[in-house]
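In this section we walk through a basic example: taking a raw amino acid sequence and producing a predicted 3D structure, encoded as discrete structure tokens. The instruction is simple. Fold the sequence below.
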Amino acid sequence: MHTHIMDIQEALNALAPTVADEEEIANITAKLKSQERAADHVTLPCLLSDWANCAADVNNPSWTVDDYTNDLCGRDLLDVAENLASDGLRSRLRTLLAEADREFLEGTVEDKEARLSNYFRVGTGWWWNRVPRDSEW
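The resulting token sequence is shown next.
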């Protein structure tokens, strides 16, 4: 597994090589907060960093089901952001997401028994049908 930890600044640099990109990211972040009711502290680079770090550390034994489902909700927001993005930003976001998604898939297994639904309202993204390989919940 890759296990690279991405910080927020690294995510911003990867997503926004220009000032115009930074403005677009700010606009998307504002829409996520207003339309999707994302928390005030949420930004697109923060979501990307959190998802990459979730994927890299998905089998952390200290994680609770609440920690895990919080990250899955963040992946939902990234999916919305991808749909709001211009072609150039969407392409960069997809590239970064593909790497994290691949790593997430490697560290998880299909949730055949729908265990997550015992704890949380399961979303529609494919990531909601996965649980960490080593989870005890």
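Looking at the output, two observations stand out. The chain has one domain: 8-132. The beta strands are 108-110, 130-132. In the next section we compare this with other chains.
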